[in-house]
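Hi R.,

Here's the chain you asked about this morning:
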Amino acid sequence: MIRVLIADDHQLTLAAVKSALEQADGIKVVAEASSGRMALGAIGRANPDVAVIDMHMPGAIDGLTCAERIRRRYPQVRVVMISGFTDESAIRMAFRRGAHAFMSKAVDPRDIPSALRQAVAGTVFHAPPGDGPVEAEDLPDGLSEREATVLKAVAAGLSNGAIAKRLWVSEHTVKFHMTNIFRKLGVSNRTEAAKWAHGHGLVEDVEAEALRAMPAAALV
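And here is the predicted structure, written out as tokens:
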């Protein structure tokens, strides 16, 4: 059972993250906080495995300061930073200050549990907005928005390493998504997955060429 603390001064975000986690097996929300100071106090009482911390909380102890103090006082706790700002400098700053993983507030709620599991496992997971939202009705049955983004990159001919760099995730994370994609589409390899994506209009030839030419930072 993964024990989680959530800290966010926006009650709507806090409630959304909590709801996503409570629906997942093997995860328990053990504490909530609306400030960095409250989060630090709650960690000592609740003993979480993971702390999901809003990067920009008001007060003297913002999300970055909170992450830094958690790293010093509770090194066993994995910090997942969450923010509405996903520029490269913000992401790098979060990791420098103590975050083990970074999520955009635009993340598909269905991806949050797997992000936390990977943070506990020691793999870096960053779920950025990507190259634009995919409407739910446009997604193939069963695929999450993140899986659809990975599938489009595969259909464009990108390797796991290239996808990892463009989406700011580890190759382990890409392989994790690929396993789910294969299972959901009923295919056995990336060639079949790419063929499926083109055949179902998930990615057009012009878009595939643009994805191949796009620099890594452009998809962050």
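One quick note: The first strand starts at residue 2 and ends at 7.

Cheers,
M.
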